[in-house]
Design a protein that fits this description.
- By secondary structure, the chain is an alpha+beta fold.
- The chain has a single domain, classed as Quinohemoprotein amine dehydrogenase alpha subunit, domain 2 (Lipocalin), CATH 2.40.128.120.
- It contains two helices and ten strands; from the N terminus they run ααββββββββββ.
- The protein has an eight-stranded antiparallel β-barrel.
- Strand 6 and strand 7 form a beta hairpin.
- The longest helix has 19 residues.
- The protein is globular.
- The protein starts with a helix and ends in a 7-residue tail after the last strand.
């Protein structure tokens, strides 16, 4: 009887352990869709000073937790100019790649061909918050809350 009880306990334990450890595929499939255009106002502090502006990302491709797209920004011309990696400017469009964390809530989005990284959090299906951090000669910190735009609304 003792051997039978031990065997049953062992099988139940293995089954419970297997059921509580999600597969890589299950985790990836659980990532929320970020496809589309997201837009909001931004607060900016960069190497030139303070400003505000419009921030937009468009997620053009997503495979599970991995995604890519473009980030467009336009600063108010009454404030400090920004930098697009080549020159000072009040507007630019840059590419990024991204990953949704295992918690399906946290976002990591490094720029392609630049040193900035956007860190974010999904607030709900149609709102995300982002903080951009860029170090170096053209240092900047930016924060924004982006709202998903209805389909077909891109600049």
């Amino acid at each position: 009887m003792y051997k039978y009880a031990t065997a049953v306990a062992l099988v139940v334990g293995v089954l419970l352990a297997a059921a509580t450890v999600p597969s890589e595929e299950a985790v990836a499939q659980g990532a929320p869709s970020l496809l589309g255009v997201w837009e909001g106002r931004s607060e900016v502090l960069n190497y030139n000073g303070f400003n505000t502006g419009v921030w937009q990302i468009e997620v053009t491709e997503q495979r599970g937790a991995r995604f890519r797209g473009t980030k467009s920004w336009r600063l108010d011309e009454s404030g400090a100019a920004g930098h697009d990696g080549t020159q000072e400017t009040w507007a630019a469009t840059e590419q990024f790649i991204g990953m949704v964390d295992f918690d399906n809530e946290t976002l990591y989005m490094p720029e392609v061909n630049d040193v900035a990284i956007q860190f974010g959090r999904i607030i709900n299906a149609d709102a995300i918050e982002l903080i951009l951090v860029e170090s170096g000669e053209h240092a900047a910190v930016i924060r924004t809350i982006l709202i998903r735009q209805p389909s077909g609304n891109s600049p």
